[in-house]
Write a structure and sequence with these properties.
It is a single chain. The protein has 8 helices and no strands. By secondary structure, it is mostly helical. α1 packs across α2, α1 packs across α5 and α3 crosses α5.
Length: 197
C-alpha cells in the first residue's frame, strides 16, 4: 500500500495540533490562540484556514472516517484472492491508525456529539461502510459465520484496537510501538480465529 511522505501542509499541522489539544483538554477547554501557538501562528491567523473550532472538529472526525474507508477500500482492491491476507491487511491498516492517531480516537469518543447533525450523520455513514468492508472480509474467511456474528466480532475487534488511548504512553503503559503493534495484531487475529469454533 502506498503512503504519502510529503511534509504536512499548514492546514494539516493545525488539524494535528487541534486534535492533540482537544483530546488532552476537551473541545471547550482549548482556544484558537492555543491552537495557533502550537503551530507558530496567531490565533486569528487560523481563520485563514478554518472558519472556527467547529470546522476543525468536523474536518478531523469526518476526515478520519473518510481516510479509514478509503484505506480499507484500497486494501480490498490490492488484496490477492486470499481472504486471510485481506483480513490481515485490514487489521494492519487499523492498527496503524490506532497507534498513530490516538488523539482522534479520544476525540471521537468525547466530541462526536458536538458535530452538526449533518456531519455526525456523515461520520456514522462512513463508519458503517468501513464496518461492512470488514464484515465481508470476515465472512469470506469464515463463510459459516452468520452476518450478525461477523459484525459483532468486527465491532469487538475495533473496541480492542481502539483502546490504545487508554493504555498510557510508550514507556508507561505501552511496551513500545513495535511490541504494541505485534500484541494488537496477535489479539485481533486470535479474536477472528475464534469464529472458526
Amino acid at each position: 500500500m502506498t503512503t504519502r511522505t510529503d511534509a504536512p501542509t499548514r492546514r494539516e499541522q493545525i488539524l494535528k495540533a487541534a486534535a492533540r489539544l482537544f483530546a488532552e483538554r476537551g473541545f471547550h477547554g482549548v482556544g484558537v490562540d492555543e491552537i495557533g501557538a502550537a503551530v507558530g501562528i496567531s490565533g486569528p491567523g487560523l481563520y485563514r484556514h478554518f472558519p472556527g473550532k467547529d470546522a476543525m472538529l468536523a474536518e478531523l472526525l469526518v476526515g478520519i472516517s473518510e481516510r479509514l474507508l478509503s484505506g480499507g477500500r484500497l486494501r480490498v482492491e490490492e488484496a490477492p484472492a486470499d481472504p486471510e491476507a485481506l483480513l490481515a491487511s485490514l487489521i494492519d491498516g487499523h492498527i496503524d491508525f490506532a497507534l498513530d492517531d490516538r488523539p482522534l480516537i479520544t476525540l471521537h469518543d468525547r466530541e462526536l456529539d458536538r458535530l452538526r447533525d449533518s456531519d455526525r450523520k456523515l461520520v456514522r455513514q462512513l463508519q458503517r461502510q468501513y464496518v461492512e468492508l470488514w464484515v465481508t472480509a470476515v465472512r469470506e474467511l469464515h463463510p459459516d459465520v452468520a452476518e450478525s456474528e461477523a459484525r459483532a466480532a468486527v465491532h469487538a475487534v475495533f473496541g480492542l484496537l481502539n483502546s490504545t488511548p487508554h493504555l498510557g504512553s510508550y514507556g508507561g503503559g505501552l511496551p513500545g510501538r513495535a511490541a504494541t503493534e505485534t500484541l494488537l495484531r496477535r489479539l485481533a487475529h486470535g479474536a477472528f480465529a475464534s469464529l472458526a469454533g
